[in-house]
Design a protein that fits this description.
Pfam families: DUF7054
CATH class of the largest domain: Alpha Beta
Organism: Medicago truncatula (Barrel medic)
Number of domains: 3
Protein name: Senescence-associated protein, putative
CATH superfamily of the largest domain: Phosphatidylinositol 3-kinase Catalytic Subunit, Chain A, domain 1
Distance between the termini: 100 Å
Order of helices and strands: HHEEHEEHH
Length: about 170
Amino acid sequence: MVNKLRKLEKVVVCKNKNWRIDDDEVKSKKKKNNNKNNINRILISINIVGSSGPLTMVVNEDDAVCDVIEKSLKSYARQGRLPILGSDVTNFDIYCSNDVSDALSPSEPIGSFGTRKFVLCEKPPSPTKTEARSKMMARKGSGSWKSLSFKKVLSALECVSISSRA
């Protein structure tokens, strides 16, 4: 009974101090925080093109853009979101949501842009890949495998329909 009363007295005392911890404990925690070189952490929101909603993450202000892209791809995959993006950082660009004209440099710190909202999207395909594809399609002509297989399916359906009439 005496122990319960002492605990009750401590609660009342704490309530009178507006539910605060002793000043000594607060000072010791501040000293521990000062030892971390005052790293500022920020909450950012990253919209991913084609995804259902934004990712929200806590990152260091000094983290490079490429590190933030890597963390966001890992978080996206861990959450099991669709569409599946992959994990290669070099295939993605990140933009400020209010200025989508230029991609951010991968080596710059994420906190230097003055915004907390970003857009992540895949890099457009390089022109050399599209040129190679167009050359390959020109060589194939109309005899691609899709058109040949479609013709075979049509002829098979015609044979089935003729045999069912007889």
